Amino acid sequence: MKILFIIDELEYKYFEFNKLVTNFWLNIEFLRRSNEVFVATKNMLNIKDSLPFCFCTKTYFKDYELYKQDNLENICLNGFDVIFFRPDPPVDINYINATYILSMVKSEKTLILNSPDAIRNKNEKLYINDFPSIAPKNIVTSDVNLIREFLKENNEIVIKPLNRCFSSGVFYLYHGDKNTNTIINTATENGKTTVMVQEFLSGIKKGDKRLIYICGEILEYCVQKVATNDDFKFNEHCDKNLKFGAITKEEKNIENIISKKLEQDGVIMAGLDTIDSKIIEINITSPCFFIKEINSLYGINLEKIIVDKLENYINKKLKQEHKGVLVNY
Fold it and tell me: Where in this chain does the record put each ATP-grasp domain (predicted)?
């Protein structure tokens, strides 16, 4: 297959095998299977002669290290079999503009994971409200008075910005906190910016879990993301804060609730964050699968498991269009 990874600018600039980066694990595993793999960033996307193009370069794996070539080619996106669109948030106007270009790609020729339409239309924080039975109580608003009312009703809340990642800008607030006005005004920029406000789930004291959703299935492997001593939430990607996480029956059953809708939306890869078997976030832009940590905790090769499932899915989809098999085994 001919594959393009559109990754984060920092990952592209410092392109080497960083074991914390999911994109690099997947890139290497596809290369090991004799695929032709290219890499680019979203700002390299362009339109020429009314067709979607991208400046990109080939990657290669040598002596257990990942490299990219120096030369850039401006290649029509319709020439790829698969495009993985995985830049990190924030989902700002440049991110949205990139999805417009990707939406021009001919779907009968090229598969894009995840769908640019889904990324544009489904906010990672708001997406949980498509599944209210497994979501915590929440409101979405910029109205400071509405937030105060929600705080009074629930006693403890968490305020989240809608378009950031890595727990940036997330606040915990309890009823009676003397900093209530300051925190609410800071989070909403004095009532100008819409935020999500969720009820505080007590299970966060043990950490939230990252469930791995691939091709309609929640894998049996996950990590428990434990908060640092000076914070209520996980915000540091290191071994001491990532523990073995056992998936409960309730969490496994989540796939039965969400898989049909996610498939319809074009979401094939997602990171589901859960507390007390409630989904607090559905990561669909560039979900981290914590491959290094899960491999160590479970004694497996998660990258192979993920790519096996992706290949089966891709092969099925492309076979429907091309009436032939395109995946290398």
Answer: 125-311
Q: Are residues 182 and 211 in the same domain?
A: no
155 CB contacts (<8 Å, ≥6 apart)? Answer: 174, 175, 200
Q: Is residue 79 part of a domain?
A: yes
Domain count, the chain: 3
Distance CA 115, CA 166 (A): 22
What SS3 class is residue 53?
A: strand
41 is in which domain, residue-wise? 2-120
User: Which residue numbers in the chain have pLDDT < 70?
Assistant: 165-167, 229-240, 321-329
d(CA 186, CA 106): 43
pLDDT of residue 241: 80
Q: At what angle do helices 291-298 and 302-322 cross, to 10 degrees?
A: 120
* pTM metric for this prediction: 0.91
CA distance 225 to 201: 15
Answer with the one of 200, 217, 252 that is the final residue of a domain.
200
- Is the same domain home to 233 and 268? yes
Query: DSSP letters along 255-324, please?
Result: HHHHHHHHHHHT--EEEEEEETTEEEEEE-SS----HHHHHHHHTS-HHHHHHHHHHHHHHHHHHHHHSS
Supply the CATH number for residue 151's domain. 3.30.1490.20
Dist CA 280 CA 110 (whole Å) = 32
| Separation of alpha carbons 321 and 155, rounded Å | 53
Helix (H) or strand (E) holding 5, with range, is: strand 2-7
Q: Let me know if residue 327 belongs to a domain.
A: no
Give tens-digit pLDDT for 194-244: 999 999 999 988 889 999 999 999 999 999 998 776 655 545 555 668 899
* Confidence (pLDDT) at 164: 74
> Is residue 308 in some structural domain?
no
> Hey, CA dihedral for 126, 130, 136, 137, is it positive or negative?
positive
The last residue of a domain, from among 185, 200, 215: 200
